[in-house]
Amino acid sequence: MSEPKILPAWLDADAAALAGAEPPAQTLAGALPGLARAQSLAPVQRLQRVRESGLAESSGAGESVALVWRQFLRGHGPSALVIDATGLDVRARGSAAVLDGAPWLLAEGLAIAAGLRDSRTVELRLPAELSGHETAFLNAVDAIRSLAQVSTPRMQVEVRRDSRPGYWGEEQPSDGSRLIHTPETWCRIALLFAGESDLDALLFTLRRGMKQRGLVELARSGNLRSQIDAWGGGVEASGDDAVLVFDDGLGGFLPLAEADLACDPLSFASVGIVPAPSSLMVMAEGVCVVKQTRRALYRHWQLADGIVPAPVRPLLARAARLTAEITLGRGEPGHLVTLDEVALELAAQGLAAAWTLRSSLRYYREQWEQHTRRESCPEGLCLVRNPAPCHGTCPANIDIPSFMAHLGHGDYRATIEVIRRDNPLPLTCGLICPAPCESACVRGGSNGAVFIRPLKAKAAEHCLADGGYPQPELAPDTGKRIGIVGSGPSSLTAAYYLRTYGHQVEIFEELEHAGGQLRYGIPAYRLPPDLLDQEIEQIRVLGVQIHTNATVDSLEAFRKDFDAVYLGLGTQKARLLPVEGSHLPIVLGGIEFLHAVRSNEPVRVGPRVVVIGGGNVSIDVALTALRQGAQHVDLTAIDQRRNMAASPHDIEMAVSEGVQLHPGWGPIKIDEDGGVTFQLCEQTHDADGKFDPKYDPTRLLTLEADHVIMATGQGTDMAILDGSDVEQYHHGFIVADSQTLMTKEPGVFAGGDAQHGPRLVVDAIRSGKIAAAAIDAWLRGTPMDADIGKPVCRDDVSPLPVLAQDRTYRPRAVMPERSVEEVLGEGNYVQVEKGLTDAMADDEVRRCLRCDVCIGCGLCMAACSEMGIDALRMADTTAPRLAYFDFTESEACIGCGACTQVCPTGAIHLEDRDGKRRTVITGTVVKEQPLLTCSECGAPTQTPAHREYVRRRLPDHMAALLERELCQTCARGRGDRPHVGATPRVAASESIPQFNTPIKQ
Length: 1001
Ligand code: SF4
Ligand code: SF4
Ligand code: SF4
Fold this sequence. Notes:
Layout: H1 13-18, H2 28-31, H3 33-39, H4 43-53, H5 65-74, E1 80-84, H6 92-101, H7 103-117, E2 121-125, H8 135-145, E3 156-160, E4 178-181, H9 183-193, E5 201-206, E6 214-219, H10 224-230, E7 243-246, E8 252-255, H11 265-270, E9 279-283, H12 289-303, H13 313-327, H14 333-348, H15 353-363, H16 365-372, H17 389-393, H18 400-408, H19 412-420, H20 426-432, H21 436-440, H22 453-465, E10 481-485, H23 489-500, E11 504-508, H24 517-520, H25 529-540, E12 545-547, H26 555-559, E13 564-567, E14 573-574, E15 587-589, H27 590-598, E16 608-613, H28 616-627, E17 632-637, H29 648-656, E18 660-663, E19 665-670, E20 675-685, E21 691-704, E22 707-710, E23 714-715, E24 748-750, H30 753-756, H31 761-780, H32 804-809, H33 820-823, H34 838-845, H35 859-866, E25 875-876, E26 882-883, H36 898-902, E27 908-913, E28 916-921, E29 924-930, H37 944-952, H38 956-959, H39 968-974
Parallel strand pairs: 1-2, 1-4, 2-3, 5-9, 10-11, 10-13, 11-12, 13-24, 15-22, 16-17, 16-22, 17-18
Antiparallel strand pairs: 5-6, 7-8, 7-9, 14-23, 19-20, 20-21, 25-26, 27-28, 28-29
Helix pairs in contact: 3-7, 3-9, 4-5, 4-7, 7-8, 7-9, 12-13, 12-15, 13-14, 13-35, 14-15, 18-19, 18-34, 19-22, 20-22, 23-31, 27-28
The chain binds iron/sulfur cluster (3 copies).
Residues 863-864, 867, 869, 871-872, 890, 893-899, 919 line the site of one iron/sulfur cluster.
């Protein structure tokens, strides 16, 4: 049994290529033992080695790899090696772990096979859901190329993203033009040539929940539990109640306590698990297995598209639909009875979904019963309606779908009103927020996340140009006075909301201008001071007094003048790394450098500047240095580029302005003559995720600098707290209650960077909002609003009408920016972004999928599939939820309305107008078709397609009765014909439950 293998740091192309450093003097045999051995073998000898091993393909029917190789060797002409990560069965998720966890092994397997026919092309087929998982593999190929001894140094990799099920099951072409294997098999080939492969073992991918992740070999004869414990320290969760999830739930669920079994197919099958699982994830006790089952069943349903016979597909849809209803709190005990029957039928049909459903029902019956009794869900999440992912992820919890819908309706004032319910600084955030909401946007799984951030700025600009923001209603004056120290984003936010609660608020700022970090820590090319002034003015006009050049020396004295105090002190002091030479005069602190520049001090740096950092502040420092005299700026970070804290967009901007990036290096020494020495960081975190950098002291990088600027951390001057009861952590931030933000001193509250440490501006806004609610509650002696700090729906705005083509295909807008020539140059702080045009903003809001209205439960799709129509296609997302990405593929819709009966929110509905029936999903018409009318009363009845659907399912003598079109009322009146409004169900043993009550909010 082999241990999980970890990608050696030197194989990471980021470190080697971007630092301009050479790979170490590694021998091929040491780095790639399988390839080294293969190079001494002729192609037929390589085939012989595979034949002797009896190696079989890791999926499908387990074809002999030797047979496939023999066919390939007989081919002539150009040849390609194919990594098929689309999976012949349910293994795409396992493939993701191989691509991420063992990319070098994968590349090594390809390099071995490349020598069979001097193949120069590699095709990587990725399904849509694995898009982005190719990066580590591409890096590994680059690194292998850089080893001179490799026989095929010009191997070209073509990534075919969005490879659709059409590829699935493609056989090896008989002309030998391609050699196709799954990622697992390619890795197995590398292990085989390295002599490490146990042929009686399954290649197995360890995923989330294991202390160590990656590929291992699962010995068939070994005990599963012992092997799990032996793999790099076992599972992360403690206790026997952890849940083993095989193949992402597609292979079934098993309690860890039941894992005392052999790993042969019979043993797996005997406990209800897929006989040859390919990946394992471990979830801690308390996860909702019912929810996981729902997800896996939908995945089975999607994978079965075009593969399982049409009559069986509705069975999968039924399993998914019943499970989804249970997770939405709409299940009855009868659902479980039916699910048991469906599980048996799935097994009888030989469908893999039986492993998922049967194991879940068998081991987690209690959870299922709790759900059907609507008592509880272990995670407390299943039975409630979750907010849209963007809404839930925004630290300020702005109701994003609602404000975007207002913007799409052209109502800028309503847009700003919705945003300011949670964030009083829409313009500032619209210009500078790194937008965590966009990282969570469901649309990111299709053609780019909705560009949420600049839409706030767009609405703000319109309102400011039109006389200012709509102002909130102020509660009656309470007569209470609140003093706020500092005028950064958390203080401004606290002041705004405290004023709306009816209190008198005064802000004390020791500097010349208000704004704190917004003014002194963010360069003017991102946030021009005049725009910040306009936004602060919108808070001042509420009656908030802002005193500048007003120093507060002692909290104790200050406290006496106010009923409550809020400390929004911010972080103004740089924290320098304790490396040799950090005390030298050429070393500056990043935040102090920015502060000096924004205070119009005559700061000049360079001509050579080295910036040490990796976060957004370091990018600001690097780009500011270029505007303050630097000719050449090197930016170093201890992390690899993909792990740097700075946003990818900001990193790209820095590179485009000429900043030289050096990821993966930690500083060790700064010389007086300006030489800065770094050593290669091989690993930044240990297996438990703790920061624990490991360096290679033999790999050094030296950069020359006239100034070194460290953007490596920030702290606060806490002199104001002397003599007070307010406590500080050992790392220098203020201790405050996590719920109320009140310090140890009653009536003194603290938030923002000085309390939670340096974070995003929007995090500071969040703490200002929470503090305001807590102060208000404390002053009134009432409990704090329980919804503060949670995503709350602020408005009920109907979805925008959007054409299906536009909704489906319009890509994310690209921010118009000034050219590098326009923005660079000493003292040039012209704004880089030009902002979206009105037309761009209008298009962008229409890309929103309205995840607040369509909750992604998939019931509509399942109901339609159960009908045997299959007109709806949703995609799986990382949210986790389903989503409509393609609104153009509902041609098969017959307008029967089965989907609308099950939809718990009304997100999908039918509209009858002008003699036509439209099927509408969150504002988009996905199908329009004519309506028939009653031959007696003329009322609209049904679509011709629906009528045909019913006719085909009726016996001939009853179908004849349909010849005269009648509405339900007239048909009932005649009493001589079937009720055509009903929709006969496929293999129905029960009807779709009716949903008359909204799900819990
Ligand atoms: S699609 Fe719209 S509602 Fe859904 S996460 Fe993205 S922005 Fe939010
Ligand atoms: S109305 Fe159309 S989409 Fe809805 S269930 Fe009927 S056929 Fe399917
Ligand atoms: S349209 Fe309705 S039923 Fe379909 S996924 Fe959205 S919320 Fe669920």
